[in-house]
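Inputs:
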Amino acid sequence: MAFPPIREELRGLTPYGAPQLPLDRVPVQLNVNENPYGPSSACVADIAESVAAAALTLNRYPDREFVALRTALAAYLSRDTEAGVTPDQVWAANGSNEVMLQILQAFGGPGRVALSFAPTYSMYPEYARDAMTEWVVGHRAEDFSLDHELARDLIEERRPSVVLLPSPNNPTGTALPPEAVSLLCEAAGNGLVVVDEAYGEFRRAGTPSALALLPRHRNLVVTRTMSKAFALAGARLGYLAADPAICDAIRVVRLPYHLSAVTQATALAALRHGPELLSRVDDLRAERDATVTWLRAQGLDVADSDANFVLFGIFPDRHAVWEGLVERGVLIRETGPDGWLRVSIGTPQEMGSFRQALTQVMEDPS
Ligand SMILES: *Cc1c(COP(=O)(O)O)cnc(C)c1O
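Outputs:
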């Protein structure tokens, strides 16, 4: 056995992650779909006070069931569904990435299959691997929509215990219509269908959330995060809504006290300032739509987007374009199918820098 005695299938692999370049070298960072607007000073003051209060009892373990936080998250989610969401339907962890891993630990495992449709979120196959779950990937259509019948056929053929559907999809921005979610929930039988709504708050008017379908499908799981619309990526708080039996199953695999008292206090304070943190979402959606229009006017192919990023191309050498932008101080993401690039929506100033840099790169690729 070689040293260190890492699992055979992990040998030689490097940790995955978007390049983190220093701000002084690349001042305009539009590569990981963060919210460009930080919390207000009122919110910061509330977080600081709440964390100070929590610090008085840091000698004690936190509330393992984070009841206050589940209650606040349920109230927040209830805005998106007439049926409402109750605290026992809510689960949370350190980012929705941890929620996803817990789902695979509880419902995947040896001999079981997790399935998604490419292009899809690049972290899913890693979590499947870490949970020793077979990873099966179908494909989206040329315009990145999902062919409902083909998707249903693949699910019926491979019988996954977990289907992972980002909606709006990362990296394409494509939202799934509710009919598709319902059809796939039925096709999955007792398998779970996880609709990852990390970008749910950015969806265009008229695009519904899958939360409204929860009463109809007991195998449906809707995940959300405070990292994107809520402008709280640094705090690490992701969550889901599902049948209480699903939450109970996840409690079996979670680490004890996985949500620190500091995290709980921070998330609760941020939720109290929800309307203010979310007030920038409309600005970002407008900036997103303007970015789509501008990129199309440059003669580029652009995917319709319900998220806070836009996928565009098609470049014969996308790496050269990405590098040209970095040289001009703009960091975007080299991801998606060959030839495509993804830009996160920043402030109007940042998007101005992006447009200027991209114009220069396309005029003079060298
Ligand atoms: C950003 C993102 C998340 C959120 O990750 P966190 O761990 O909550 O920060 C989840 N799913 C997708 C598809 C994402 O792009």
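Remarks. The two ends are 48 Å apart (CA to CA). The mean pLDDT is 96.
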